[in-house]
Target: Mitochondrial thiamine pyrophosphate carrier 1
Amino acid sequence: MSATPSASGAPSPLPIPTVEKLSAADQFRSAVSQPTVAAFCAGGVAGAVSRTVVSPLERLKILYQVQSSGREAYKLSVGKALAKMWREEGWRGFMAGNGTNCIRIVPYSAVQFGSYNFYKRNIFERHPGDSLTPLSRLTCGGLAGITSVTFTYPLDIVRTRLSIQTASFAELGERPRKMPGMWETLVKMYRTEGGFPALYRGIVPTVAGVAPYVGLNFMVYEHVRQYLTLDGEQNPSAVRKLLAGAISGAVAQTCTYPFDVLRRRFQINTMSGMGYQYKGIFDAVRVIVTEEGIRGLYKGIVPNLLKVAPSMASSWLSYEVCRDFLVGLKPEETKLLQ
Model:
């Protein structure tokens, strides 16, 4: 294409292509389709779905964990304990603490998946799309776990308090007619239990357990997912994704479960009537093993393992479905106007 002569005889410059301005809707679609943003949003959805699905078993696990030696209120099989919870508290008992748990888990899961994607793309991948080694996946997942728990820990400790306050532990005394809510519990802890540090009580064993747990979860899931992807497929089927999520959750939970018990014990360490006042992590381990045996470090693992399969399977599946949907919202390439 030649230049068009101007009135003076000199050739005029060629027209400069201009970029079409994106509409507000396309700008939004472009923003949420970015890999890290999509992972962040999908992680929040995955957390809410997975926790609601297994809320009764999640609460029962906590009741088992916080019950020390000599307490018999929930020294029952999983079926009988769930039946007791239903008789005494009904459907609300199954969902006790789940609202707070979802408020906690949405940002927790969002930050976890989003930060994993961020660390993976910006630190561990030399080139976009590179496959990470198992050690890199483990490290990346551990960093994501530490990041997420640091941001959301006060909500976790309040969720633990809300989960046990309606349970029939005789040592806690008569239950009040109106139970305090999330914000009221948070403020009360801050005012009566030592200020800001009270909201992070138990974070050391939490981080010690969360980092390897999240690392193992991501590492095992991506490895099993890759193994279950058949030749010629880009992604495994939904059923195989569910299986990969169940396996990864079971492996990670079993390996790191004692840290979860310690976390729960420290979160209610200042509550009267529970039968323990630990001085530190090593003191807690010593007292638990002495009074309750090695099994004391694995209290609640049965309902925990029962919830792992549906929890992690639904989490990973809903995460991938939501993430792929958001990434697919990316608008077409910007058109050039001549």
In short: Strands lie at 18-19, 336-337. The chain has a mean pLDDT of 80. The longest strand covers residues 18-19.
